Amino acid sequence: MNDVIKLLKSHRSIRKFSDRPVAHELLIELIQAGQGAATSSHVQAYTVIHVKNAANREQIAELAGGQSYIASCADFLVFCADMKRPTEASERAGSNVVRGMTEQLLVATVDTALMAQNVATAAESEGLGICYIGGIRNNPQAVSDLLKLPEHVYPVFGMCLGYPAHEPEVKPRLPVEAILKEDYYSDDSAQVQAFDDTMQTYYQSRSSGNKHSDWSQNLKPLFDNKLRPHMRDFLIERGFEMK
């Protein structure tokens, strides 16, 4: 493995951060590294909100389900899918813009995720730790109001950023045989059952707290009930009509 592959395979979510600040110059470099990600048709349909206000961070921590590390990390970023900038630019160029298409929602969301992952990898290459915060979608309208997000912009996820104050183990991933299929989709239940055993061993031995569970058991809360059923109406209200 070269150093890049080794880095990508060593990712952990960091939830405890030291008091060491992240230099502003480094933060700019990370954002520029994020901009180097692939983007559909060069649309660059994303905006990043650097939340510096301590009270706002405390509020977002509560809105995201009481995730205190949002307030305690060195920097907190909110990655937003942004179709406002490109559609308005297209209008200024003379286009008769059609807004609210499902493809626009997909493009903006994918662009944002690719850009954020570049930021994450760049940050880890500099010794920083990160933790994605999907919990901001628990209360996306309140987060949008707090950050003064306009129509056609929505918060996809947050990211805690800072120097790690703990060293959690790398969480196992599904075996590649379950993910990589040749020519056609094929059944992978045997690999999943084996992975459940792997995850059970991991959860019982990890340093950050033991529990008796496995991968399949951990998925139950995500699919037992409707997950964030408010998101469809919220996105429509944001201008992403999914036409």
Describe the structure.
This protein is α+β, with helices and mostly antiparallel strands and 243 residues long. The chain has one domain (3-169, 226-237): NADH Oxidase. The chain contains eleven helices and four strands, in the order ααβααβααβαβαααα. The protein has helices at 3-8, 24-35, 54-63, 69-72, 84-92, 102-125, 140-147, 176-179, 189-205, 215-223, 231-237; strands spanning 46-51, 75-82, 129-133, 153-162. Strands 1-2-4-3 form a four-stranded antiparallel beta sheet, with helices on both faces. Helix 2 (24-35) crosses helix 6. It is globular. The termini are far apart.
Core attributes:
4-stranded antiparallel β-sheet, alpha+beta, 11 helices, 243 residues, 4 strands, 12% strand, NADH Oxidase
The helix fraction, in percent, is 40-55%
Number of structural domains: 1
Poorly predicted spans? none
Question: Helix/strand/pairing class, anyone?
Answer: alpha+beta
Instruction: Provide the CATH superfamily.
Output: NADH Oxidase
Topology as a string of helices (H) and strands (E)? HHEHHEHHEHEHHHH
Shape: globular
Strand arrangement across the biggest beta sheet: 1-2-4-3
CATH class: Alpha Beta
Number of H- or I-type helical stretches: 11
State the CATH architecture: 3-Layer(aba) Sandwich
Question: What is the CATH fold-level name?
Answer: NADH Oxidase
Total number of beta strands: 4
How can the largest sheet be summarized? 4 strands, antiparallel
- Rg, rounded, reads 20 Å
- Distance separating the two termini: 45 Å
Instruction: Give the averaged pLDDT, no decimals.
Output: 96
EC number: 1.5.1.38
GO molecular function: FMN reductase (NADPH) activity
Enzyme class: oxidoreductase
InterPro entries: Flavin_OxRdtase_Frp (IPR016446), Nitroreductase (IPR029479), Nitroreductase-like (IPR000415)
